[in-house]
Amino acid sequence: MSESNNSVKLGEIIQEFGLEILRTAPNYENVSLRVLDINRPGLPLTGFFEHFDTERLLLIGLTEHTYLTGLTPEQRRECFDRLMSYPVPALILTRGLDLPPECMEMAVKHDRTVLRSTQETAMFMSALIGSLFNHLAPQITRSGVMLEVYGEGVLIQGESGVGKSEVAIELLKRGHRLVADDAVEIKETSHHTLVATAPDLIRGYMELRGIGVIDISRLLGMGAIKLSQEIDLVISLEPWDDKAIYDRFGLESHFTEILGVKIPCTTIPVKPGRNLASIVEVAAMNNRNRRMGHNAAQELTNRMDRLFAEQMEGGTN
């Protein structure tokens, strides 16, 4: 896996996984992790260091531990002397395995951090890689309003003043939940989906023209706020254009691409008299139906085709 532009501190990983600290290097908590993978140092323990990435965390599980216990103390000392001579962020033992004394000796010599987890190796490795991916994944900030509507993550976008916040406040009054207003932070997860959150500074706040900034949690309760939500649908609001041709059947599926991930999208024209909150609710429910394999437009088209075919067949008899 490649290096990320983002980073996560080693101290955050230690806290997240409840790792036992066996030995620490100076300022170990602030060591930045930038690589979306870890090292199982099987080959390096035998002396093969070609393509060895010194920015990855080292993980020693039962396999490596069994190999090491079969060596003499002097051989183990030599293995760890070579391994710890590289500036690795930390070495982690899994399954609550005992630390070979030669490992601690070389960790002290080269001033390296050594940690331990009680989890099984495969489980811990999978969770750690997933966590690193989520911490280091590509991230962008988009203008818009992010809401959860009937369990669907809906990102509402549009030009300034088109009415995004007004639609959002009506949806919140109907019991849906706000994730972010104005600035939406979007991150790709390890499952190749997009998760939206709000910047810490403005989480829970909205701006309504003519009123100003409001605190949603105080007005509508904490139940109206959600910290993060996967993006399932992007809705673009645009002023109604009498000359534009709008989709009336919805036979074709439209997508937009964010961080390389394709997300269903739809455009809703805005004009006085349209109940946009209700339209957004229907769009969210319809998107879920499509994801479950139900396409109302296609079903109606199929019914019409069958009717025309029957009429044509009856006319020829």
Care to give the gist of this entry?
The chain is an alpha/beta fold. The protein has ten helices and 17 strands. It has helices at 10-17, 42-45, 62-69, 73-84, 101-110, 121-136, 164-173, 216-220, 276-291, 296-316; strands at residues 3-9, 20-23, 32-35, 38-39, 57-60, 91-93, 114-116, 139-149, 152-158, 177-188, 194-197, 205-208, 212-215, 228-230, 233-239, 255-258, 261-270.
Explain the overall architecture:
This protein is 35% helix and 29% strand. It has 317 residues and is α/β, with parallel strands linked by helices. It has an eight-stranded mixed sheet with strand order 14-11-10-8-9-15-17-16. α4 (73-84) runs parallel beside α5 and α7 (164-173) packs across α9 (276-291). It starts with a strand and ends with a helix. The model has no long low-confidence stretch (mean pLDDT 89).
Instruction: Quote the distance from N terminus to C terminus.
Output: 67 Å
Q: What fraction of the residues are assigned to beta strands by DSSP? A: 25-35%
Number of helical runs?
10
Element-by-element helix/strand order: EHEEEHEHHEHEHEEHEEEEHEEEEHH
Mean pLDDT: 89
User: Which overall shape is indicated by the principal axes computed on the Cα atoms?
Assistant: elongated
The side-by-side strand order for the widest beta sheet comes to 14-11-10-8-9-15-17-16
Q: Helix/strand-derived class?
A: alpha/beta
Radius of gyration: 28 Å
Helix fraction by DSSP (H/I, runs of at least 4)? 25-40%
Largest sheet: 8 strands, mixed
| Strand segment count | 17
**Low-confidence parts, pLDDT < 50 over ≥5 residues?**
none
